[in-house]
Amino acid sequence: MNKQFARLSTRLGYDFRQEGLLKQALTHRSYSAQHNERLEFLGDSVLNCTIAKVLYDTFPSLPEGTLSRMRANLVKQDTLAEIAVRLQLGEHMLLGEGELKSGGFRRPSILADTLESIFGAVFLDAGFEAAQSVVLRLFQPIIDGIDPNVSGKDAKTRLQEWLQGRRLALPDYHLTDTRGEAHDQVFMVACRIPALGITTQGQGRSRRAAEQEAALAVLKQVGEIK
Q: Which of 30, 63, 67, 164 could form a disulfide with 99 if both were Cys (CB 3.0 to 4.6 A apart)?
């Protein structure tokens, strides 16, 4: 396995038997006709089934509707893109010249699709249990942070609902700084709520992650979260 793929395999915690599957999973349709969209189809199914099962086991008292909302929050594009950034997928993806010039290696939709393609590639390489293990390794820290008392809602959603319940204007999120190289950036975001005179700061490996941290800081400041 070449060094670039070896580094990614280490981050994934999985060594491919068929290196060609990993290469295909990283290949965007703009680069080659042998692209990753069919693998993405498989990976999406593996991901949804794995997350559904772990939520079912982790929260035995929660009803179907709540579990469905939790799963939707975990398998959405933003969450997948955050994990892809953490894995530094952008530096491994094979993109056509146009996509490279337009910053496709940073685009959340492409990052999310590529991650799902990798799940599909692991499934074909070694079966469902191997793919499930990769998914759980990447998602477990997020699952561990879920508070079942708020139905799996993220900090931004909770803050929005808290403000709406008090007929206050929604928060203003403003990107204040970006640090690091293009493939390894840290975003700094401010969350302002003028009606309350509150401004908080958050940082993360994606803009959304930074916004979530800033929103969480507001919830703590107003006593909604201890």
A: 30
Q: 54-89 pLDDT, tens per residue?
A: 999 999 998 998 899 889 888 988 889 889 988 888
Pick the CATH number of 155-221 from 3.50.50.60, 2.40.110.10, 3.30.160.20, 1.10.10.10: 3.30.160.20
Annotated active-site residue 44? The verdict is yes
Distance CA 226, CA 220 (A): 6
**In the chain, what are the domain boundaries?**
3-147, 155-221
Going by C-alpha positions, the residue among 43, 68, 76 that lies closest to residue 206 is 76
Contact call for residues 163 and 169 (beta carbons, < 8 A): yes
pLDDT digits (tens, 9 = 90+) for 106-155: 788 899 999 999 999 999 999 999 999 999 999 988 887 776 766 557 78
Q: Tell me if residue 116 is catalytic.
A: yes
